[in-house]
Every structure is written in C-alpha cells, then in structure tokens.
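Input chain follows. Return structure tokens only.
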Amino acid sequence: LLTLALMRSINGAAVALAEAAAGSEASFVPLMNKKILELGAANTKFINASGLPGKGQYTTARDLAKIMKTALTYPLISEIIDTKETEMDVAGKSVLLTNTNNLLWSDSGHLGGKTGYTRAARHCFVGASDKEEGKLIIALLGDTSRSTLWGDAEKLLAQDFEKGRIIIDAAQKNFSVKRQKAVHRSKTRRARAKSS
C-alpha cells in the first residue's frame, strides 16, 4: 500500500493505510494534523488521507519541504520514493509499477520525492537531492503542466544554495500568496455500459 501511495499516488491506497492505522480515515486525519504540528508545519491542515481537495484543507511549499525532510528519516519511505520501478503481485499477476517522479531518471543525486495533481492545485512536486552543499529539498506547487514542473525542478536543483537558505520563488525576490477556490468534481455520475 505504501508503494502504491508513494510511487503512483493511488488515493485508495492512502485511505486503506489510514483505515489500517486508525480504524477509519476520519480517525486518522487528526493524527496527521497532530504530527504536522510537531514538525512545525503550522500552515497545513488535512481533511483526508489522500490530499484530494476539500473545504478547509491547505498547505504551503515550505510545510511540504518540512514534511519531506522528516519523511527522509524513515528508511522504508526513503527506499520507496527512490525506486524507479518495481514489480508487485496483484491477484496472482505480476504488475510493473513505474514511479511518477521523472527526476529519478535525470538526477543521479536525487533521493526521491512525491508528485501530486488536482485541478485545484495543478502539478505539484516535493523532493530531495544530494548536492555538494548538502541535502537540497524543493517544493513546487501550481505548475501548469508536467513538463514545466520538471523543467522548474531541474532549474532549482541546478542552482547553488547556501545550506539552510529558503527560496520562495527562484524568479522573484518578493512573493504574494493568492488563495484559489478548490475545484470539485461534478457529483453527476456517468452512466456505465452494461456488459451482456
């Protein structure tokens, strides 16, 4: 389940993990929020285990970087997010899983990361690489496409940074936070074709 959640962003895997850990997703969410406060991620609040958008859920790039820094201290998580491909047995069949993180193929010092996409948040990524200056953690939110996401990530990773320095936006010295309304899926269901 961790492999499915971290390598392929399978939302159902995140929900199943929450249910296994706390009995239900609703019981797991307060544990998530308690943990992130312990990490100093005070500008983040979860309402579900998967990260799908909803009223009252929010985060920042800085908080995601703090969460990634802690995630890298767990060997199992580090191993999974640094895996390019793996085979899994699913109902007796071998299934090849490929990580959604393109940097695993282009950055030899990359330690892994996590991609995300919703219509509200757009293309997002948080990841870490080993650099001469130390471990560099980047977090990008709101990119318009996967190709610009990877281009922006590579630009950030190519720069030399002082250890501990925080860059809010590589292109601008000043920044402003612009809140966006969450985009929710239509509640109408598509008619399913019946098999004969």
